[in-house]
Amino acid sequence: MRRTLLCLLFFVSHFSYIIAQTLEECQQAAERNYPQIRHYDLIRQTTDLTVANIGKGWLPQVSAQAQATLQSDVTAFPESMQKLYQQAGVDMKGLKKDQYRIGLDVQQTVYDGGTIRNTQEIARRQGDVEEAQTEVALYQVRRRVNEMYFGLLLLDEQIRLNADLQEVLTQSEKKLKAMYEHGTAAESDYLSVKAERLNVVQQGTGIQSQKQSLQILLNAFCGIEVRAVKKPVLPSVEVPQAIGTRPELKAIDAQLRLAEAQEKALDAALKPKLGVFAQGFYGYPGFNMFEDMMRHQWSWNGLIGARLTWNISALYTRKNDRMKIQLQRSMAETNRDVFLFNNRLEQIQQNENISRYRRLMADDEEIISLRSSVRKAAESKLAHGIIDVNDLVKEINAENNARVQRTVHEIELLKEIYDLKYTTNN
Questions:
Q1: What is the pTM of this model?
Q2: Cα-based distances in Å from 114 to 49, 57, 266, 364
Q3: 188 Cβ partners below 8 Å, 6+ apart?
Q4: Cα–Cα distance measured from residue 342 to residue 345, given in angstroms and rounded to the nearest whole number
């Protein structure tokens, strides 16, 4: 039982080792691993805090103050009145020139014309713009993954074809060795094929090194260990040409919504504001000035009231402010037109490349079949001494080049299709 379990664990671990990652899995892993992904949470937290702070404008605004002054002159009774008070036995000292107060001011907004609400909306829209810009940067990660992913696919195919070429040359080498040992072929022919095989082995080593370097780069970019890549299935239908919701367009829409919120804030700035207030202080002099002129004592004082304010100075810059917002809107709309124009040009080029690679692939199989027949015929001719070994090597390399061309065309076609999907976000 224990042996069975160990074998099962070995099979599972070995099977998981050879599982190939798809392009979509690599793209998702790269987006999660990209440091800028953390901007989403930071932007949301910052926006929430800003909106909450702006909303505190509805809370009573309390300020404490302490004041001490020394005046050059103070309110006093005329001399004639002071003499009358003195005759009546009343000591009218007048106010002192040094005055003090310690108090609190409380103001409560009742109606602000929508200023706080619109300011909160502006903060939210600014957060949306920052999130959209972050999404643009993350979306561009997909293209970088595409480049590395299809580069690995191409290297995998080249390694496979290199191994096939080594196998063909090995078979020819074995035949020539046997012919040489029986005296029906020259040693130079055998050594020539062997040297060509070793040259192909060196090429395979170089391709393996390129693959290892690119694989390390893709692993670091995705934050996962990509042991192998899986070749996507060639789509049987065309990629939709209508552009989807690209992040760049979302960012432009967010900028337009921000401009709309800023425009509403301008309207709110022109509306009157209504609030209530209360003031209280302990000091000298107080509100009862007559009493304080007779007795120099600190006292408690307070008042409550309502205040209506209308800041018409906002009219001075309103026209220019509206023009600035309109210019920002026009710039965003122009950026959208430019993006759509460039995007359309990119689609035209990619569609043309897809058509070109499909036309090339239509002839690849026939070319490979013909080259394979010529190579087999060359092997037969060499065995009968009609051609020399150089002609055989030439035909073997021609067949291999045809297979390489087919592979390159197939991978390039897949890459163009997925680049078109990236361009249209479909």
A1: 0.79
A2: 20, 12, 10, 70
A3: 389
A4: 5
Nearest Cα residue to 379 out of 168, 160, 165: 168
Nearest to 164 by CA among 414, 387, 377, 401: 401
pLDDT one-digit tens code per residue, 90-111: 666 778 888 999 999 999 999 9
Can you give the pLDDT at residue 81?
67
DSSP letters, 303-334, are EEEEEEE--TTHHHHHHHHHHHHHHHHHHHHH
Long-range contacts of 235-239 (CB under 8 A, 24+ apart): 235/417, 239/417, 239/420, 239/421, 239/424, 239/426
306 vs 232: CA distance, rounded Å: 72
Query: Could you tell me which of 411, 425, 406, 421 has the C-alpha nearest to residue 351?
Result: 421
Q: Which domains does the chain have, with CATH numbers?
A: 20-59+112-272+310-424 (1.20.1600.10), 60-70+89-111+273-309 (2.20.200)
At 223-265, the pLDDT tens digits run 988 888 988 888 766 766 667 689 999 999 999 999 999 999 9
Closest CA to 258 of 247, 250, 269: 250
In 183-316, DSSP assigns E strands to: 273-284, 299-309
289: helix, strand or coil = helix
CB atoms within 10 A of CB 364: 18
pLDDT per position as a tens digit, 352-406: 999 999 999 989 989 999 998 998 888 888 777 787 788 888 888 898 999 999 9
CA distance 420 to 402: 27
**Residues 289, 112: Cα–Cα separation, whole Å:** 36
Q: What is d(CA 409, CA 287) in angstroms, rounded to the nearest whole number?
A: 94
